[in-house]
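Researcher: Sequence recovery benchmark, item below. Answer with residues only.
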């Protein structure tokens, strides 16, 4: 095995970087999806063929790309959103919501023949969920759209992307960001096999414990050997890998040292885990762009996502900078 083992965070400071925070407002570009989330909160999720009554319904703006963008914006970044919606009520509501967050929406495109993406989400009493997505206009974003948008934006500090737009848009955005020297953060969700050539241009790959087993093309869907999968990804030139583990925290693998470190979770009362991973991604991007060490950025992201799971919904649950800082201060004083 190349990966030699997991170390505790206090023994890994030598490769977690040097704190060098910048007071300047960072610029983050998000290439990703915009969906309207149709959420039903119920005591339990119905089994196949079963109908249950008594659920509470809410319509909440979502989409992994939009969620990550809002997360970063609320934490202090200047965010540019690149995506595609339909010419319909959902699309109008989504871009209005992003604009109200201070996010630049000039590169969110409208598609006349496809409806805005929709996610059907069921949330149980433990905060766990099932999600089905009709991608709609998200799949109409083109590489030329992305190229045009990034040219108009100019320089930026980080590119953040899930895999909910066509893969050619991911390639185009990554190549441009790589040549500009911007950080590239890829959230491989929904998971699919990733070309090694693409991996070599990515600074941070952030899958969850289920997704990592699908990224190499030959892995199992359930219970993948995280060490083995990390070894394969790093062998392709990946610089940094962070695997989120839900309530168990996250694990960081360093492409240079071939070692890993556990970032423990914050214990909170979970209401809804929808959007928690997106919250983590947006906060991680902000922390890294501010010059935080990897450990500090991951801790900042963990705090943000811990707050998010105590609230219902995706974008509606995302915390502000002040909320995260107050939460972390309370942890330090406890």
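Model:
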């Amino acid at each position: 095995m190349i990966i030699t083992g997991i170390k505790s965070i206090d023994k890994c400071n030598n490769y977690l970087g040097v704190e060098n925070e910048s007071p300047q407002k960072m610029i983050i570009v998000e290439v990703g999806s915009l969906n309207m989330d149709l959420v039903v909160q119920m005591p339990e999720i119905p089994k196949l063929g079963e109908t249950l009554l008594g659920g509470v319904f809410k319509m909440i703006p979502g989409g992994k790309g939009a969620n990550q963008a809002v997360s970063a914006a609320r934490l202090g970044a200047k965010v540019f959103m690149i995506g595609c919606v339909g010419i319909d009520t959902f699309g109008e509501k989504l871009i209005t919501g992003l604009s109200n967050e201070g996010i630049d929406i000039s590169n969110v495109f409208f598609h006349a023949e496809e409806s805005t993406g929709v996610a059907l989400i069921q949330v149980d009493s433990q905060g766990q969920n099932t999600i089905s997505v009709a991608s709609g206009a998200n799949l109409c974003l083109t590489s030329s759209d992305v190229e045009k948008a990034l040219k108009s934006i100019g320089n930026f500090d980080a590119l953040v992307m899930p895999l909910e737009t066509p893969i050619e848009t991911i390639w185009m955005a990554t190549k441009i960001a790589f040549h500009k020297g911007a950080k590239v953060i890829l959230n491989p969700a929904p998971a699919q096999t990733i070309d090694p050539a693409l991996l070599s241009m990515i600074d941070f790959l952030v899958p969850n414990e289920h997704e990592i087993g699908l990224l190499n093309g030959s892995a199992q869907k359930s219970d993948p050997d995280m060490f083995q999968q990390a070894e394969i990804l790093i062998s392709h030139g990946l610089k940094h890998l962070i695997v989120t583990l839900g309530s168990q925290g996250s694990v960081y693998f360093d492409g240079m040292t071939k070692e890993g470190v556990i970032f423990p979770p914050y214990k909170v009362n979970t209401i809804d885990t929808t959007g928690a991973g997106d919250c983590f991604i947006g906060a991680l991007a902000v922390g890294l762009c501010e010059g935080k060490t990897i450990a500090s950025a991951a801790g900042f992201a963990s705090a943000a996502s811990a707050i998010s799971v105590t609230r219902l919904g995706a974008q509606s649950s995302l915390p502000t900078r002040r909320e995260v800082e107050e939460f972390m201060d309370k942890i330090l004083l406890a």
